[in-house]
Write a structure and sequence with these properties.
The complex is a heterodimer of chains A (about 180) and B (about 180). Chain A has about 180 residues and is an all-alpha fold. Chain A contains 9 helices and no strands. Chain A has 2 domains: about 70 residues, Rna Polymerase Sigma Factor, Chain: A, CATH 1.10.1740.10; about 70 residues, Winged helix-like DNA-binding domain superfamily/Winged helix DNA-binding domain (Arc Repressor Mutant, subunit A, Orthogonal Bundle), CATH 1.10.10. Chain B has 7 helices and 6 strands; from the N terminus they run αααααββββββαα. Classes of the chains: A mainly alpha (about 180), B alpha+beta (about 180). Chains A and B meet through helix 2, helix 3, helix 4, helix 5 and helix 6 of A and helix 2 and helix 3 of B.
Chain lengths: ~180, ~180
């Protein structure tokens, strides 16, 4: 059976813009909040994402919808950061080999703190180019390959940025 | 299939990284404010985010300063800025809005920013690179929330006359068919 025949016999309908908003709005908002660190910016990001989705659905091919949405959300966030220049990104030396020494028991050290709020605050303090891949990897559980595709950067860069982001979080959490 | 080893195999996560991952993966989903999604759907053509409001405020400052300086030959906003803010201030790929007013502008007298050339047209961009004022033959076009490169993409259509300008506004309002400003 050809691809065309498969497509004709089992068509997966493209959701409407409203369906995407209703069904995935909470996912979009949660991701936007983890990326931006506050509700106001999260709302701005989601609004912009929904507009991009509305336009993008005309060419969207049914598949991993949440992956598509998370890519749009992440890139919308990064575009805004770059455009608004609220937090100039730092230079990102691309050296995935550079690791820091681990220390046991981070979770135990932080068990007494108000973790969700503290963690979100520290996450928001990360440079955007670190924060986005860390959120995609550790909050949403995407693979390095998927994140590289999302962000359009080499997998080594993704790995380096995630490692550096995590190391900054670790330093901040144990400070 | 590629024989190249996966990056994870070459550089496995350190143990402490797994702890960070464990903490982050435990973060709960964040709920949007009640009614936010419905409101976003109901008001889809007009998403005036805070960033856009800020840019509009910046544009208003520029307009005000411009009038104070007497830079416009015909200091009259058509339509009124407040009307434009309500009717044409939209987000597309990024926060963007366009104003046009008849008359001429003395770009050198605009506050801050710098003179630029946009495909042969005299223009001015603010210091933040987000407000572009373009002097066309009989009108002044102010684009808020676009970079000079993005503004250049819109100029041909805008210069084609009132219909072209209206077309740009309509597409901005609809949020579709607009050049990808993001």
């Amino acid at each position: 059976m050809t691809d065309a025949e498969v497509s004709a016999s089992d068509p997966t309908p493209v959701p409407t813009w409203e369906e995407v908003a209703h069904t995935h709005g909470r996912f979009l908002y949660s991701l936007a909040y983890r990326l931006t660190g506050n509700h106001q910016d999260a709302q701005d990001v989601v609004q912009e994402v929904l507009l991009r989705v509305r336009r993008g659905l005309t060419t969207y091919k049914p598949g991993n919808l949440e992956g598509w949405l998370s890519r749009i959300t992440t890139n919308t966030f990064l575009d805004r950061v770059r455009k608004q220049k609220r937090r100039p990104t730092q230079a990102l030396p691309d050296d995935p080999d550079r690791y820091i020494e681990g220390s046991p028991g981070i979770e135990a050290e932080m068990a007494q703190s108000d973790l969700p709020d503290d963690l979100q605050r520290l996450l928001a303090d990360l440079p955007a180019d670190f924060r986005a891949p860390v959120v995609l990897k550790d909050v949403l559980g995407y693979s390095y390959e998927e994140i590289a595709e999302h962000l359009g950067v080499p997998i080594g860069t993704v790995r380096s940025r995630i490692h550096r982001g995590r190391s900054r979080l670790k330093e901040a959490l144990t400070a | 299939m590629s024989s190249e080893p996966l990056h994870d195999d070459v550089f496995p996560d350190e143990p402490w990284e797994a702890e960070i991952t464990s903490l982050l993966s435990g973060l709960s989903s964040v709920e949007p404010p009640p009614g936010f999604i419905d409101q976003a759907i109901d008001h889809r053509p007009l998403f005036a985010g805070r960033a856009l409001v800020g840019l509009l405020a910046a544009a208003a400052v520029i307009f005000g300063a411009t009038f104070a300086l007497g830079a416009f030959g015909q200091p009259r906003l058509v339509p009124d800025l407040s009307t434009l803010t309500a009717g044409a201030a939209v987000q597309s790929g990024s926060s963007a809005s366009i104003f046009r007013q008849p008359g001429v502008v003395e770009l050198d007298q605009l506050p801050g920013g710098e003179r630029i050339d946009l495909e042969g047209r005299s223009a001015w961009v603010d210091a933040e690179n987000e407000v572009v004022v373009v002097a066309t033959e009989e009108s002044v076009v102010t684009m808020v929330g676009v970079t000079p490169d993005e503004a250049a993409e819109l100029l041909d259509e805008i210069d084609s006359g009132p219909e072209g300008f209206t077309g740009v506004l309509n597409r901005l309002t609809a949020g579709v068919g607009f050049p990808d400003l993001g």
